[in-house]
Specification:
18% of the residues lie in helices and 49% in strands. The protein contains two helices and 14 strands, in the order ααββββββββββββββ. The chain is flat.
Length: 175
Amino acid sequence: MKKWFVMVAMLTVMTPFAAVAQETAREDLPQPASTERVSEATRQRWKILSWGIWFDVPRSVNRTNVDGVKIGLPISSGRVRVHGLELSLFCSATDRVNGMQFAPVNLCKRMGGFQMAFVNVAGPRSSAFQLGLVNTTGKGAQVGLVNVADGAGFQFGLLNFNAEGFLPFFPIVNF
């Protein structure tokens, strides 16, 4: 019983000293290296203005992200990001766009923003407002003759197909 009492008394007396020693030891240590992951987009180059003349021509269209305007004379493409405006005479086909695409044909794997063309195609993980003759996207609002969407959204056109809509197919208006 005496040993138990002595142990409890020692722990009670020593605990505040242990906490002070631990705080002092923490202050002496250098700051840890950052464990924050750097995204691929942060490591890549960014430009305000970029241009292309054909699919993957020049080669820089696959290495340079755009935070501004990307122009296609006649085609712009690339496996990069555009934050801003992509404008082409024939086809805009950059993989990821946050902003606007204007061309006779717009293709995008992941779109967040506005597309205007005769044909607009955005990937299933996209959320876009599309204005054109034929529109396809994952989610978003569409105005055109033929509209196809995977997720719920507003559609106004002659033929409207929406897997999660009011009805899977409905003319004029579907949501």
